Amino acid sequence: MKKLYVVAALLSLVGLADALYLTIEHVTGQSVRCTIISGCSAVLSSPYAVVAGIPLAAVGAAAYFTVFSLAILTLFGYPRAATLVRAMVITMFAISVWLMYLQAFVIREFCQYCLLSALITTALLVVTMIARHAR
Amino acid sequence: MKRTLPFIIILVVLAVALGSAWYLTRTIPASPTLGSQSPQSSLPPGSQGSPVAQQQKPPVVQGVPGADPPHVLGPADAPIKIEEFGDFECPPCGIFHPILEQMKAEFGDKLQITFREFPLVPTHQHALPAASAAEAAGLQGKFWEMHDLIYEHQGDWKKEFDVRPIFEGYAKQIGLDVERYKRDMNGDLVAQRIFADGKRGHSLGVKGTPTVFMNGREVPFENLPAEKLRVVIQNELRSSGR
Lengths: 135, 242
Known about the structure:
The structure holds two protein chains of two kinds.
Chain A: H1 2-28, E1 34-35, H2 39-44, E2 50-51, E3 54-55, H3 56-75, H4 79-107, H5 112-134
Antiparallel strand pairs in A: 2-3
Chain B: H1 5-27, E1 71-73, E2 80-86, H2 91-107, E3 111-117, H3 127-138, H4 143-152, H5 154-157, H6 164-173, H7 178-185, H8 188-203, E4 208-209, E5 211-214, E6 217-219, H9 226-239
Parallel strand pairs in B: 2-3
Antiparallel strand pairs in B: 1-3, 2-5, 5-6
Helix pairs in contact in B: 3-4, 3-6, 3-7, 3-8
């Protein structure tokens, strides 16, 4: 079971790097120029990219950091942290599904970095669910 | 130690994340448009009042030659030579098009404009057919007419599944020999021209569109809104003494 939380911690680190990159793209406004990954330009400049004035990517970075911290705490024997990891990951997965819907049907552009984030969240969900049943 | 170790790991990760975010936001120049503004509002007057980015003058770059002859508007001895790398499907390029038109109207013969193809394939599925359409029109001496039509109607064709019939309509509209245009669209010459412009772009370090060079120096993206570009051109004219 411990190994699964190591995997979860590593996955959330990749998610953190991805979300941080998107946050920087968003904050510096580089996303407004078209580049080879410019699906992100449409997504990041859409009204859905900001929640209460905070870039959604920054919220994502904070969420991945929280999952990382909780996974580390679980590894070091804090049992309640495991419950919190699951709750966080389920919430993040639900938000990811909503964001995928927005990209596919509302914005109609896909940002590769957002897709990577959804993939990581899905993997995190699988890992934490297996960890729960492996106890 | 075992009790504090997880918190040390967490703090180290936090420090690395915040440190790299701080470093990267410092090294990437901030654009005037932030947050939820749409790309449509990113270039035009939205950033009025903010000063022209005072950065160190970038070096003059040469690069490898692009397509020959290039598509050029304006006199050869114009003191301001602008070279734009554009992608017809890119929204900021569509926004930049009327800005450049405005500059042309304001500065007249002091301005020479060169357009270089930089279709962002595969990000923009219609960018290559659009570039090919403009180049094919260019082979009949009507590059700029096609260039203008494609940009002006960007919103009309962008979401279409097949853009070729639309561009053929433009070809008819500007009086091209449509059969020849259709042959040229898929011909080697057009492909070679686009490839040559792309090669030039890469040699100059072009990563996205629009990328604009003025007298061989890259104009920062944040200086492309009309009111800032005007100041950049005026400054360049002043420094060239004309």
